């Protein structure tokens, strides 16, 4: 007979689980390798806002400075009421004028120029001035006025102007002078150049170069030893213009 094997009612117990021991050094190494969480950084702010602010404040500062300058100028004008000096021909005498065969001019003029300062609180200080006379484009005489200081008054400047060179004039300009000699009437233009500064109390400004141009001087050419005077000096108009030097150019 064959013996029958009956299974047991209880299953066999599972095999025991072995306890794994991890060294402390390995745990420390693994802990050092952990990646810590960092929140995302905000994007860098654009520098355009700083530039706009800088431009805005610079513009505001310039506007304020300009406004203060306008206010200061208005106060200065109301207090001092400045006026530029004026000039006129006081007297004009021609004692000699001759054109040689070699186109050399010899001349002698006695000139008096009046400078008028109408400012009560402003004094003008003039440097030595150079004077030149022109007939058309021909230089017919040159001289100078001495420097002076002028408060509120009329100052008369006198000098003798004549030719100081023996160079012949150009052929194209000889015809203009010969025409004046035939008509016995000389039409001249006078130019005076100097530097001027203003003084208010103890404060002095910088020097400004000016040019005074007097047009319309008509004077008869004398004959012999008689002197001739410009009778029409009241019709002579003198104009003052400032001159500014930019590098090598004078405006």
Which structural traits does this protein have?
single chain; 14 strands; alpha+beta; four-stranded antiparallel sheet; 251 residues; elongated; eight-stranded antiparallel sheet
Structural class: alpha+beta
Give the tally of β-strands. 14
Percent helix = 10-25%
Q: Provide the β-strand percentage band.
A: 35-45%
The CA-CA distance between the termini, in Å, is 146 Å
Query: Helix tally?
Result: 3
Largest sheet descriptor: 8 strands, antiparallel
Element order, helices and strands? HHEEEEEEEHEEEEEEE
Mean pLDDT value: 80
Fold and architecture overview:
It contains three helices and 14 strands. The chain has helices spanning 24-32, 48-80, 171-183, and strands at 86-99, 105-117, 123-126, 129-135, 138-145, 148-150, 153-162, 185-200, 203-204, 208-220, 228-229, 237-243, 245-246, 249-250. It is α+β, with helices and mostly antiparallel strands and 251 residues long.
Task: Describe the structure in brief.
The protein has 251 residues and is α+β, with helices and mostly antiparallel strands.
Secondary-structure map:
Blueprint: H1 24-32, H2 48-80, E1 86-99, E2 105-117, E3 123-126, E4 129-135, E5 138-145, E6 148-150, E7 153-162, H3 171-183, E8 185-200, E9 203-204, E10 208-220, E11 228-229, E12 237-243, E13 245-246, E14 249-250
Antiparallel strand pairs: 1-2, 1-11, 2-7, 3-6, 3-8, 4-5, 4-8, 8-9, 8-10, 10-12, 13-14
């Amino acid at each position: 007979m064959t013996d029958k094997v009956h299974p047991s009612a209880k299953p066999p117990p599972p095999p025991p689980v072995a306890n794994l021991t991890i060294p402390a050094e390995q745990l420390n190494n693994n802990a050092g390798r952990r990646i810590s969480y960092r929140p995302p950084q905000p994007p860098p702010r654009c520098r355009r806002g700083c530039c706009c602010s800088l431009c805005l404040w610079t513009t505001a500062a310039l506007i304020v400075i300009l406004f203060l300058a306008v206010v200061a100028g208005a106060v200065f004008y109301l207090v001092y009421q400045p006026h530029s000096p004026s000039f006129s021909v006081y007297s004009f005498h021609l004692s000699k004028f001759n054109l040689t065969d070699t186109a050399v001019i010899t001349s002698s003029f006695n000139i008096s120029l009046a400078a008028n300062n109408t400012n009560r609180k402003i004094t003008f200080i003039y440097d030595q001035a150079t004077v030149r006379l022109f007939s058309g484009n021909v230089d017919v005489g040159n001289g100078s006025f001495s420097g002076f200081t002028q408060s509120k008054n009329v100052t008369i400047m006198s000098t003798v102007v004549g030719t100081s060179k023996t160079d012949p004039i150009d052929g194209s300009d000889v015809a203009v002078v010969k025409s004046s000699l035939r008509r016995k009437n000389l039409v001249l233009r006078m130019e005076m150049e100097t530097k001027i500064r203003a003084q208010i109390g103890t404060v002095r400004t910088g020097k400004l170069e000016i040019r005074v141009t007097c047009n319309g001087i008509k004077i008869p050419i004398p004959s012999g030893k008689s002197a001739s005077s410009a009778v029409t000096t009241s019709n002579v108009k003198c104009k003052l213009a400032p001159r500014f030097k930019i590098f090598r150019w004078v405006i």
